[in-house]
């Protein structure tokens, strides 16, 4: 797919006011309000710093969690964290588009950085609508007149159609920030030019996402093999007629994933031999790891793939020229059950194939293990990258492309 969009390089930002949408949604201690991991803030700091150093008045838009969650909070801590990372003052205002926020923006001088309040404090932000409708929201109408440009750097939220993500692109000259630019160029190029054999390692607990990707890449012929791990593997084992025990069946039912067992049966029938399942698993017995062949699984929780499976999967990974991976192989946070996730990541990092890891837990595990340099691309957005791999259109990308194409007419 040919991508066309403006970037930071296309605009003269000297003494201009630039709205920059980032995704600095971070793990927050619900009691103290302290940020537990500033990875995403560091990721977007480069874009913010570059725009500011171009002489712009940089106004940052961001969100933290969503209504109803215990980490749904203000962005004051984020402003402090960003100040520490950039080693310069980042102002914060507890307002989004009211007169207080707009006056603060008007008072800014070139090079200043201002972080506005959590955009999801505004009720219209969480409503999914078309970009043209989002451009008519109060946030967009109030902030557009006090800004010159809009830069979208929030790739991790690119699969969402919300005012701060798609609305401004229709009211201001708009382009992609460095994180967005890098993600789109890397992911689309990898998908379009995937060398064979191409494999997908799909795990974790978001079964619906994995099966959506699986269907797309198998049907369009871009994937040669799918290696299943995590809850995805348990569902496929059940679909293949393996008795995974009532505990694990109930776990699947409790998450409303029972229908995916039937879906998995169809996929196994349609793509014979291409969907690989574990040949052994690690279950939790008296809080310890114990491995069993798939014909002898006890009625205990399956927390990881077994070592024979790890060895079998490693052969596919080593032979592959393109590797996409998303989701951990098991409950990797629990001691003794991180083996599958760790070994698969180590094999990917040492393989000769071009490797991409989706965001979320697997990316965090790779970073924690110090494997980032051995993996060609680690995506900052799990949901966005999954949707992209599944062939879904990303609203943010659609509107950025529309702006570029219409400017060329």
Low-pLDDT ranges: none
How far the N terminus sits from the C terminus, by CA atoms, comes to: 20 Å
Arithmetic mean pLDDT: 95
Largest β-sheet summary: 6 strands, parallel
The number of helical segments is 16
Give your account of this protein's structure.
Strand 5 (149-152), helix 6 and strand 6 (174-176) form a beta-alpha-beta unit. 40% of the residues lie in helices and 15% in strands. It starts with 16 loop residues before the first strand and ends with a helix. It folds into two domains: 8-179 and 393-407, Rossmann fold; 186-379, 3-Layer(aba) Sandwich (Rossmann fold). The strands form three sheets. It has a six-stranded parallel β-sheet, sandwiched between helices. It has a six-stranded parallel β-sheet with strand order 9-8-7-13-14-15, sandwiched between helices. It is elongated. With 409 residues, it is α/β, with parallel strands linked by helices. The chain is built from 16 helices and 15 strands.
Brief overview:
The chain contains 16 helices and 15 strands. The chain is α/β, with parallel strands linked by helices.
Q: How are the elements arranged and paired?
A:
Layout: E1 17-21, H1 39-53, E2 57-61, H2 76-86, E3 91-92, H3 99-107, E4 113-115, H4 131-134, H5 138-143, E5 149-152, H6 163-167, E6 174-176, H7 178-192, E7 198-202, H8 207-219, E8 225-228, H9 230-239, H10 246-254, H11 259-270, E9 275-276, E10 280-285, E11 288-293, E12 302-305, H12 307-319, E13 322-326, H13 339-350, E14 354-357, H14 361-368, E15 377-378, H15 382-389, H16 395-407
Parallel strand pairs: 1-2, 1-5, 2-4, 3-4, 5-6, 7-8, 7-13, 8-9, 13-14, 14-15
Antiparallel strand pairs: 10-11, 10-12
Helix pairs in contact: 1-2, 8-15, 9-11, 12-13
């Amino acid at each position: 797919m040919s991508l066309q969009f403006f970037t930071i390089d296309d605009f003269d930002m000297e003494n201009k006011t630039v709205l920059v949408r980032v995704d600095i949604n971070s793990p927050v201690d619900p009691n103290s309000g302290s940020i537990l991991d500033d990875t995403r803030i560091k990721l977007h700091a480069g874009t913010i710093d570059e725009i500011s150093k171009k002489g712009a008045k940089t106004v940052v838009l961001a969100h933290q969690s969503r209504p109803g969650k215990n980490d749904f909070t203000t962005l004051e801590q984020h402003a402090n964290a960003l100040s520490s990372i950039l080693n310069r003052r980042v102002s914060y205002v507890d307002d989004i588009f009211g007169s207080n926020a707009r006056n603060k923006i008007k008072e800014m001088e070139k090079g200043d950085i201002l972080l506005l309040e959590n955009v999801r404090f505004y009720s219209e932000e969480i409503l999914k609508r078309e970009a043209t409708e989002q451009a008519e929201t109060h946030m967009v109408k109030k902030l557009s007149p006090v800004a010159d440009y809009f830069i979208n750097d929030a790739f991790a939220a690119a699969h969402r159609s919300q005012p701060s993500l798609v609305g401004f692109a229709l009211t201001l000259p708009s382009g992609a920030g460095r994180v967005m630019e890098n993600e789109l160029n890397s992911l689309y190029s990898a998908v379009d030019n995937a060398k064979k054999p191409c494999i997908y390692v799909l795990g974790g607990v978001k079964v619906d996402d994995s099966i959506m990707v699986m269907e797309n890449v198998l049907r369009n012929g871009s994937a040669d093999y799918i290696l299943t791990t995590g809850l995805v593997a348990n569902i496929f084992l059940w679909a293949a007629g393996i008795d995974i025990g009532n505990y694990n069946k109930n776990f699947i039912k409790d998450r409303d994933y029972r229908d995916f067992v039937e879906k998995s049966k169809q996929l196994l029938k349609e793509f014979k031999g291409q969907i690989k399942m574990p040949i052994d698993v690690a279950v939790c017995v008296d809080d310890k790891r114990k491995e069993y062949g798939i014909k002898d699984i006890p009625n205990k929780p399956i927390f990881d793939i077994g070592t024979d499976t790890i060895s079998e999967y490693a052969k596919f990974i080593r032979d592959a020229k393109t590797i996409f991976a998303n989701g951990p192989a098991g409950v990797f946070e629990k001691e003794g059950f991180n083996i599958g996730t760790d070994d698969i990541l180590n094999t990917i990092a040492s393989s000769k194939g071009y490797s991409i890891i989706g965001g979320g837990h697997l990316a965090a595990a790779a970073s924690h293990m110090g494997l980032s340099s051995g993996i060609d691309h680690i995506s900052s957005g799990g949901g966005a990258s999954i949707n992209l791999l599944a062939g879904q259109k990303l609203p943010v990308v659609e509107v950025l492309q529309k702006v570029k194409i219409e400017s060329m007419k």
